[in-house]
């Protein structure tokens, strides 16, 4: 609904736009018929579940909007003050004038903030079809009233009990007369007038005040305990004098033999007319906890973004040979998660986060084999080829849109099962909405300011008070998601020192300018007043019902802006290292890809940080030689990429390992060792450590072993030798780092809680279809009551084949529209309004107002036809 339409529907203290002399709508369907197309589109956008499937007409739409599941979902999306307004309507008379609702919200003394904020709340309730009717007859839909109204089993959120009329239903007339007499009222001749007299007493401020002035102090104490709820209390068969005094005057009315209730009218007098103890018309402000220079925030976030990329790369390298096995129920085991955390040098919870980020970006996935394992995907190699800033934008975009919640890993579901990393039960539809909302609130703080977490959580609770706890036993899921978002954004480099970075802000199209999240008296932050003084409904940036779905689409879009802002802050890859005499090499920054890959084979990573330290060992040098490098190649590589001379100990190490590398040759016999120097073979046989290999000499230069070649290679290397494997042809086998990849996999799609938000094209088509269907179901036919089988009760018309043909031919000649009953090929009966264009060959070609397009209908499927009234166009 547009701002102008919302303003017309919202109440203005000086007066509202009326119905223009037309009769007030009697049902929600009639109220929806008075809306424009923008109003219907706004309803369908705010409540997309109403579109599945598209309603046939406005009556079906109204019926669906009143179903329990749909109303519960709509109530969950209301902010606290709008929900309080709905709760007040639930305890108000039905229908209730706007002034009565305002009195329940602001009380006898009034409140300027409430008076300014209430029009927006009523307009939002109207927009979402939870309230209908004009300002003199506001009606809360019946299902919402049942959900919010009080009962002994389900007390009202307002803490109010039943009315006097409801509480005295079934009470004996004699007892009613005793109550009104004790209260100082004149007796009546019937229970109805007695209830009305007691109600008038409780709603008359002056007389009610005089009655309470005579109450014992202890009785007033009893009322104080009940006034704000729950309004029910237990009594003994012989109550105390204060309770008896209240019961005798109807201030406590019996519900059962042992239970009494404070009637609603009496409670409202004690509350000075307020339905809620603490109305909250203003959204709590998110306050900064600390402020940093924006440059410091951006550089800190960029450093963490670089660490994020390095961590994901390290994770993929760990799984290059194939990662952990997939559990039968999905996900990875606790033991494998611990191993991954150890390899990444992080906690298990942080390791689960990086696993889920890589999985959400489509970089790792199960391989789908019989013995299913996790492994990098082909998309990981494409991702590696991107510039660093673009790689980060891909990760951040996937995280922002994902419905998976890594923070749940290790917790238990409703059945007591532990939730596994990469498992199937981590999707929470609210996750993308909460992430985007948290970042949007951070964007509203001054640049460089980190939020106070408590005020941030308070704001989120105000915006969605009913969400979260319903689906997570004993916990507020939205609060947990918000806390995880703050931690995850810092790990990913979206924030730095808790404050939103410039490149993080670029991930949020339409985010508020820094420093704009400050409450304005009378309305929620971010809700500018209109020229008439009204406050429009919350925008997408303020957390509309479809934030999560809108965020999911925005997050998978091209984040070129974020990558462009991050790129200058990322460290430039270097093409050199600094070799040191202690057999280490220091990389003064991120290394270029070919250099990093070669050095990772030639040396082991000893420490990470701003500068990575690599250590050369005999095993690492042998690994490079096994990969096909020669000693001369290694010397040339180090000389070309070192800014310092190659230390003599490192040169000696390479030459020494190369001299012995391949001197021994191991092949498959089951396995054998051959060497041109028979003295070396004699040394091996004499070594006690070779006993497990069960060697025997076949020739002066050949030993046979009963171990397999891999075990033989490992055994000889543990004895200090440098054997090389050889092929059946006698050539040295070159072992290169193996990169195992899964088949092509798509990134997992987000799993929203409900239907996705419809786009503009779908909304337009749905509104046209509903309008046309409503026209077909409500259009006036000529001589409806006199036409045999004419469907005077609204049923599709029934006519003979000859009458059908004659009527549609006449309509085609005159260019008029007719109402038809039609049976589809699937046997579904429907009714349509069509304008016939041509009738020939047993078919009628017509413009279908229901479908808003030209269609051709077989005449034999038309069950009947009726002309429209002359005033219908």
TrEMBL record:
Residues 1-24, 509-544, 778-800 are annotated as: Disordered. Residues 577-699 form the Helicase XPB/Ssl2 N-terminal domain. Residues 803-865 form the WYL domain. InterPro entries: WYL_dom (IPR026881), XPB/Ssl2_N (IPR032830). It holds the Pfam family Helicase_C_3. Residues 1-11 have a biased composition (Basic and acidic residues). It comes from the Bacteria. This is DNA-binding protein. The lineage of its organism: Bacteria, Bacillati, Actinomycetota, Actinomycetes, Kitasatosporales.
